[in-house]
Amino acid sequence: MITGSLVALVTPMHPDGSIHWEHLDRLVDFHLDNGTHGIVAVGTTGESATLDPDEHCRVIGHIIKRVSGRIAVIAGTGANSTREAIELTTEAHKLGADACLLVVPYYNKPTQEGLYRHFRAIAEAVPVDQILYNVPGRTACDMLNETVERLADIPNIVGIKDATGNIPRGAELIEAVKGRLAVYSGDDATAADLMLAGANGNISVTANVAPKAMSQLCEAAMAGDREETERLNELLMPLNRKLFLEANPIPVKWALQRMGLIGEGIRLPLTPLSDKFHGEVEEALRAAGIL
């Protein structure tokens, strides 16, 4: 089972929007050096919505090659087309991904039965470990716990990223799928509480800029060390909040640029962080001891 701090890695770009491969290597090395337990390649934080299929697969393959088996690589291969998701998942499996992360289909609002059949079809088509991803705030579609319980019986569906931020609901899910699925938080602000309730890790935006502290928080929370978890959570909470002042990954890309790790590239329709928020994000970085 993949556990711990799993960074939802950004995709660094040149000012013209092309992928910056050297900076991507720098980010991967940054996480290898600072205790991150796994990398999510080309998830939504990695701007999967604006990478074409060839770029999408090239970035996944590049990260797998750079990591070289030292930590887990989870490929973001979700889509709102079942056929497209199968194609991306097939390619990620060929490239050697340890698992694939599949977001609930966005925009087209399938029924719960449609969600079940979508994820079952992908699992049956590609023999790779698969992690579901429920983020209703961005997909406009909420996969209910009952649907997740049905999917938990499919052997290569091994986990779910729960980004609802609803701790009672998450705790119920953990209990319902215990022994069948790993549950990961997908919401930095509530991740500590969900891990203390039994979740297996955090797929994190904040880990992009604070990998060591986030990996330590995950380890403490999964070990049941409430005091250390609360100390680290308090340290990171300003970042957890300020990195969402505008749509993710706008603030976290600006933060990484401010840290000197990447350049200013981001793809339309996303734009660079508004000037009025620079001070708030920088203040959060300083409060966490990053700057």
From TrEMBL:
It catalyses: L-aspartate 4-semialdehyde + pyruvate = (2S,4S)-4-hydroxy-2,3,4,5-tetrahydrodipicolinate + H2O + H(+). InterPro entries: Aldolase_TIM (IPR013785), DapA (IPR005263), DapA-like (IPR002220), Schiff_base-form_aldolases_AS (IPR020625), Schiff_base-form_aldolases_CS (IPR020624). Its EC number is 4.3.3.7. GO terms for biological process: diaminopimelate biosynthetic process; lysine biosynthetic process via diaminopimelate. Coiled coil: none annotated. Pyruvate binds at residues 45, 203. Pathway: Amino-acid biosynthesis; L-lysine biosynthesis via DAP pathway; (S)-tetrahydrodipicolinate from L-aspartate: step 3/4. The record marks 44, 107 as: Part of a proton relay during catalysis. It is found in: Cytoplasm. The active site is at residues 133, 161. Catalyzes the condensation of (S)-aspartate-beta-semialdehyde [(S)-ASA] and pyruvate to 4-hydroxy-tetrahydrodipicolinate (HTPA). PANTHER family: 4-HYDROXY-2-OXOGLUTARATE ALDOLASE, MITOCHONDRIAL, DIHYDRODIPICOLINATE SYNTHASE. This is 4-hydroxy-tetrahydrodipicolinate synthase. The lineage of its organism: Bacteria, Pseudomonadati, Pseudomonadota, Gammaproteobacteria, Pseudomonadales.
